[in-house]
Write a structure and sequence with these properties.
binds aspartic acid; Glutamine Phosphoribosylpyrophosphate, subunit 1, domain 1; 12 strands; four-stranded antiparallel beta sheet; 295 residues; 26% strand; eight-stranded mixed beta sheet; alpha+beta
Length: 295
Amino acid sequence: MMSHNYVIALHGGAGVNPQRDYARVEAHLADLVDRCDEMLADGASALDTVEFAVAQMESSGLYVAGRGSAPNDQNVVECDAAIMDGARLKAGGICAATDIAQPIRAARAVLEHTPYILLAGDGAKAFARELNLEMVADPATHFVLPVGVEAEEMLKLDKGLAHGTVGAVALDMNGELAAATSTGGLLGKRAGRVGDTPITGIGNWADSDVAVSCTGIGEAFIYAGGARDLAARMAYGGQSLEQAGASLLAAVAQNRGDGGLVAVDRYGKVAMPFNSAGMKRAVSGSQIDRTVSIL
Ligand code: ASP
């Protein structure tokens, strides 16, 4: 059913270093959210749009995801990503993956070409190779960029801020919802550690009512029930999108974490709450003026 109402909301990760100049990130988010708005206005699906948005953020090197990711305690970048199509109720993800240039493309390939939801480590790498996805020749120089120093700056400032994630949620003109999320995880994390991001229902979720992408301390989001808990608070608890987002973040705080999320419901209502120190975010839509915010 064509409703002609569409929305795109992006985040570039919870946690902001107040001493850093975010002008480049703000300009990037503004340009990207405009491009996603145009795609949706031209009839692109929510799924294609969120995949595009996250792939662009991964490639930019401006965020702690894809290019710009921070290394683990073995000095290796391990990426996690997930994508979900709310219309088909189908998801794909990869975790602890090395050498894959755009983790969200691999997550989409898992969604489209396997009966599984999550592929890990070497298995994810082999799968990406088989699908001829772009691989990285030298992960140490590809992922850990000079601009990726944001994570190192953050570490000096506050260990708790040394992480980052990117995400996108969209409602398209057919009334379909999708969510995509990608992360380099926590800076200096133990090798093999996987957080909430690639786990469908926790860091990322979309169904026919709502699409959600989370960012923050992954363990706390897992204990709090994550994105699907937000959907359940709406479906069974009768909460509004805002109430459900706030309730999830309160549960995250109770579980010794902080963070934020972007969410859109089937009516095109958007929520972008956070209880971290800032969250890079942007929104635009057929009935919503474009805004970009950091704090
Ligand atoms: N949620 C991510 C993780 O715990 C990190 C982040 O969002 O900054 O791996």
